[in-house]
Structures are given as C-alpha cells and as structure tokens.
C-alpha cells in the first residue's frame, strides 16, 4: 500500500482554515465578554438608580414642618424651598427639613432632624445634608452623588387638587412631589412621592391694650 503525505498546499489550506476558526472564536469570545461587562455595568447603574429613588422617597415622606434659621436670621416661613431650573441643565433644586434621622441613644453629635437639598451639579444628581437644620454661615454641607450622567431634574408639587410647577406657599408642605429625572442610561424616569401636606400654625401676633 502506498502511503502519501500531505502536500504543502494542503497544509497551507488547513492552517488557513484553523486560523479563520480561531479568529472567529476569539471575536465571539470578545463580543461575549464586552456584552457581559455592559450587562454588569447596567445592573450596577440600575441598582444605584433604585437606591436613589428609595432615598428620595424616605426623605420626602419624612419632611417635617420646621422653620429653619440660617446664620442667626429670623426663622424662614418657607418649609419647602423649590427653585426652578436655569443654566445648562435647566434642573430644579429643592430644599426642606426631614425628621426621623435616627441617633441611637444620642451617641452621635447631632439631632434627629436633617436639612436636605437635591440639586444637579456637573451632570450629577446630588443630595446635600447638614448635621443641624439651623446652620451658621460658612458651614459646608455633606454632598452625596446619587446618579451620574443626569441631563435634567424637574419637580412638580401637588397641593389641594392640582399640580403646580412653582411653589411659593409659606408654612406649608406639599401633599405630594413628582420627580422627573432624565438620565443618559435610562431615559426619562418619573416618580410620585407622597408628602404630609402639613401646615405649621403661626402663633398670633402679640397685642397691647
């Protein structure tokens, strides 16, 4: 029986075929790895979004009717400050006081009432808070970034039986707040959070006889 080896051409063809298969397999593996990285990043971003919405819900639901003094000035009659957006992001800012900030056995050097601000800065949705609601001038708040790549943050307030885009009521909290966040990763997210709608009764002015 004659034994015949592979010709040079056959070897070259086989090498070329295996090279093509290897390149295709590597490309498939790279694509799968990139998709896995994107999937993990999306999951992390979504978890962060969910956490941010939970933080907002907790804050709005625990908003309290407390007047605030800034740098020793007279107590402000605005319990819920709402500033309409302007500038590049056209994003709103809200500021209010919330209770329920747990301080077990009063071990921490602060109270259980917290001043809170939500704003967009450098395309980040930020939550600012102070250790005490009444602050002296020059005291810097703590800043926490909730969501990155924010395009806008808009707020509407519900009072009585209607939604309003400008809030100017004194000594009153809204009944609800609607938050609309435009994110590069998730598009438009809209949530409604209930509030107490409570009012702070102002003491009557002193009279003289």
Automatic annotation (TrEMBL):
State where the protein is found: Cell inner membrane
Q: Which Gene3D superfamilies match?
A: GSPII I/J protein-like, gspk-gspi-gspj complex like domains
Q: Name one Pfam family in it.
A: T2SSJ
SUPFAM superfamilies, A to Z: Pili subunits
Q: Which residues cross the membrane?
A: 6-29
Keywords of this protein's UniProt record, alphabetized? Cell inner membrane, Cell membrane, Membrane, Methylation, Transmembrane, Transmembrane helix
Name by which UniProt lists this protein: Type II secretion system protein J
Which species does the entry assign this protein to?
A: Neiella litorisoli
**Might you report a single GO cellular component term?**
plasma membrane
């Amino acid at each position: 029986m004659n034994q015949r080896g592979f010709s040079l051409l056959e070897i070259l063809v086989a090498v070329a075929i295996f090279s093509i298969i290897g390149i295709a397999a590597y490309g498939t593996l790279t694509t799968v790895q990139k998709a896995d990285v994107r999937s993990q990043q999306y999951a992390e971003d979504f978890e962060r979004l969910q956490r941010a919405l939970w933080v907002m819900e907790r804050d709005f639901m625990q908003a309290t009717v407390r007047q605030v003094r800034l740098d020793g000035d007279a107590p402000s009659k605005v319990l819920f400050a709402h500033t309409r957006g302007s500038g590049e992001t056209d994003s709103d800012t809200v500021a209010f006081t919330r209770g329920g900030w747990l301080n077990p056995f009063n071990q921490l050097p602060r109270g259980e009432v917290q001043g809170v601000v939500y704003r967009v800065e450098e395309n980040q949705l930020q939550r600012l808070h102070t250790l005490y609601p009444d602050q002296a001038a020059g005291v810097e708040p703590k800043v926490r970034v909730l969501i990155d790549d924010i395009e806008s943050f808009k707020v509407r307030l519900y009072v009585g039986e209607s939604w309003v885009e400008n809030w100017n009521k004194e000594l009153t909290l809204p009944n609800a707040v609607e938050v609309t966040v435009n994110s590069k990763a998730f598009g438009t997210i809209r949530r409604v959070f209930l509030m107490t709608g409570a009012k702070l009764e102002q003491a009557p002015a002193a009279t003289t006889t």
